[in-house]
Write a structure and sequence with these properties.
The complex is a heterodimer of chains A (57) and B (148). Chain A is α+β, with helices and mostly antiparallel strands. Chain A is built from 2 helices and 3 strands. Chain A has one domain. Helices cover 21% and strands 26% of the residues of chain A. The longest helix of chain A has 8 residues.
């Protein structure tokens, strides 16, 4: 991830910080499974606070 | 790969106890306590925080009640994709609380605390001796991408 220049893992996700609120979201169990299976993802959209999500068949 | 499975369902051990006057009283009280904790202040010291640590996480990754409830609270007790309300929180809310949080008549489901970057992300990572600030801050890009 650091190679992609996204985050500094040690600075922001070290230890218990992996559970920080900004690294979490509440999901239905089925949606959670789809997210874990990379069948659902989020995409940034221009308007703030509005996100689009997509499903893979 | 399962990043985290976290449930409020209490795991029973040993023989099935005789039914009490309210068969689900323990579960109800546990959920009610959880919900009350969710709308009160977070633990202020380490000992209090340790008491809040959940023993019932169903994977090797343990998430404290405090973290889980804070996510639920921020997300208004709903799945952030479907909008369905967490059934455990819903069932212990009073009518007033259900109105307060806008969950009256909502579709219900079981929700998880879902990591965006999985817990394995920080396993076995050590900082290099000469490490420079080479990456962007997590918060702006991350929230921008995923939080609804």
């Amino acid at each position: 991830m650091e190679s992609f220049g996204i985050i500094d893992v040690l600075a922001e996700l070290d230890g218990a910080n992996i559970h920080r609120l900004s690294n979490a979201l509440t999901l239905d169990v089925g949606v959670h499974a789809a997210f874990d299976g990379l069948k659902l993802w989020f995409e940034e959209v221009p308007v703030s606070n509005i996100k689009r999500f997509s499903f893979s068949p | 790969m399962i990043w985290l499975t976290f449930s409020l369902v209490k795991q029973n051990k040993g023989r099935t106890p005789a039914p009490s006057y309210h068969p689900s009283r323990d579960s109800f009280e546990m959920h009610r306590k959880f919900f009350i904790d969710a709308i009160t202040e977070p633990p202020r010291d380490h000992s209090t925080a340790k008491q809040a640590v959940s023993p019932v996480a169903t994977s090797r990754v343990y998430v404290s009640y405090h973290d889980f409830l804070q996510a639920l609270r921020r997300d208004n007790y709903r799945c952030m994709v479907t909008g369905w309300v967490d059934i455990n929180c819903h069932e212990v809310m009073t009518d007033t609380e259900q109105q307060q949080f806008g969950v009256v008549g909502a579709l219900l489901t079981t929700t998880n605390f879902c990591h965006i970057f999985p817990p394995s992300t920080n396993w076995g990572i050590e900082r290099e001796a000469q490490d420079h600030a080479k990456v962007l801050s997590l918060t702006p890009s991350f929230q921008c991408r995923l939080l609804i």
